[in-house]
Q: What sequence folds into this?
């Protein structure tokens, strides 16, 4: 089975974040943390992305956008909710326009807590996402092989 | 003893097999050097191969099947230009084949009707408009300097072409940044993480389609670097070392330009490319005409 975990391409979407987590996500690509050394590319295109990073909670305006981006990503794909708002809705949870965390609209695989999430914990979440990405791929291949034989 | 036909076939086969390997390694080296210039550690040199291997494993979520066919045609015609070049055939034919390949890339990106790829396609056509005159003039420059368009005859010369055609060389190196999709001319699509209009012409290319486009770029780059090398190659076998050194210098220069300049608008690109074409190519053409008379 191919080692696809060496090339995880990220797509970062800002839901209704206060930009705290967004800045920490971007900090991961700076010389200090440099996630590109693991082969991570911060792509802007859902069609090229493997890992979907979402910051901020979901409101009625971005609900459809998140669903559409998720559908445009080719499988295998992994969703990572970054920050407390993306995980549960955070301090905005009770707001009239907030639906809650990302898992109210699309299935979330990895939850990264923190307000704002630290670059170290984001990288840790991405590393876990990469392992899951490989696992999903292997599982799919095994299923295909079983179907053939 | 190998006859001429045998050598041609070996060179063509070598290009088909080795160009993607060499192109991928150069791409990896490019990312590494760029990262070091930005004070980062950077990915492994083999990273482009991991990327392509992963892309082939992704679900083919393409809008239509026509796009894959067009991407394959793009790959085929780029390989053909390289094969014709390294087989020692007519230079004009190589460049025409390369332009044909570009048409298939444009068809592939427009076939999806995505607004992002449409903008990318318009920019790609503006890029073609900018670099095509210089590319054709380069072929003319080789003809004026060597008296032939045949690559196999050009490499039999006694003096390197660069001595006759430094202007054509400078112009070609300039448009090479457009061809290699390097900043400041990475308008239609770019290799950098953050980009305008998502990914331009490659926006709608999914999985294996994007993998094929990447491999095609590697083939194309090796062909273009081959043209750079041809400026330095003579009948003397030692000149090949000089040619390789020149290619590496140009490669480094392109990375340096890529990392130190901001993207320009297409109007600016057109003005700059045509300006350089007229000044360097035109002047060199004029002087060569005078000398040869």
A:
């Amino acid at each position: 089975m191919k080692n696809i975990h060496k090339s995880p391409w990220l797509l970062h979407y800002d839901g209704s974040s206060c930009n705290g987590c967004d800045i920490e996500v971007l900090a991961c690509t700076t010389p200090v943390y440099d996630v590109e050394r693991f082969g991570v590319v911060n792509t802007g295109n859902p069609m090229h992305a493997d890992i979907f990073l979402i910051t901020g909670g979901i409101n009625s305006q971005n609900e459809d956008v998140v669903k559409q981006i998720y559908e445009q990503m080719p499988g295998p794909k992994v969703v990572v909710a970054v920050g407390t708002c993306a995980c549960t809705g955070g301090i905005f949870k009770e707001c009239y326009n907030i639906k809650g965390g990302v898992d109210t609209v699309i299935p979330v695989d990895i939850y990264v807590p923190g307000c704002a999430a630290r670059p170290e914990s984001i990288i840790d979440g991405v590393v876990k996402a990469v392992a899951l990405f490989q696992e999903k791929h292997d599982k799919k291949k095994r299923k295909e092989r079983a179907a053939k034989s | 003893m190998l006859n001429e036909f045998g050598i041609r076939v070996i060179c063509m086969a070598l290009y088909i097999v080795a160009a993607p390997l060499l192109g991928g390694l150069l791409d990896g080296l490019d990312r590494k050097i760029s990262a070091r210039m930005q004070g980062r550690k950077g990915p492994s040199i083999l990273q482009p191969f991991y990327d392509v291997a992963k892309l082939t494993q992704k679900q083919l979520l393409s809008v239509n099947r026509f796009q894959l066919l067009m991407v394959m045609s793009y790959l085929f015609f780029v390989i053909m230009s390289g094969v014709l070049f390294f087989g020692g055939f007519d230079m004009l034919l190589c460049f025409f084949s390369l332009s044909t390949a570009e048409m298939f890339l444009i068809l592939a990106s427009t076939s999806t009707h995505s607004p992002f790829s449409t903008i990318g396609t318009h920019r790609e056509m503006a890029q073609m408009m900018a670099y095509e005159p210089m590319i054709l003039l380069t072929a003319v420059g080789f003809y004026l300097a060597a008296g032939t368009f045949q690559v196999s005859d050009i490499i039999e010369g006694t003096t390197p072409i660069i001595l006759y055609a430094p202007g054509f060389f400078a112009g070609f190196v300039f448009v090479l940044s457009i061809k290699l999709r390097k900043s400041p001319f990475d308008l239609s699509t770019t290799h950098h993480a953050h980009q305008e209009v998502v990914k331009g012409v490659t926006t709608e290319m999914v999985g294996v389609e994007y993998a094929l486009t990447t491999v095609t770029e590697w083939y194309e780059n090796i062909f273009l670097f081959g043209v750079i090398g041809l400026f330095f190659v003579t009948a003397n076998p030692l000149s090949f070392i000089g040619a390789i050194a020149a290619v590496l210098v140009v490669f480094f220069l392109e990375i340096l330009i890529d990392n130190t300049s901001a993207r320009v608008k297409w109007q600016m690109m057109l003005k700059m490319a045509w300006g350089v074409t007229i000044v360097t190519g035109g002047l060199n053409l004029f002087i060569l005409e005078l000398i040869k008379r």
User: Anything to note?
Assistant: Residues 4-292 of chain B form one domain. Chain B touches chain A through 33 residues (CB under 8 Å). Chain B has one domain: 4-292.
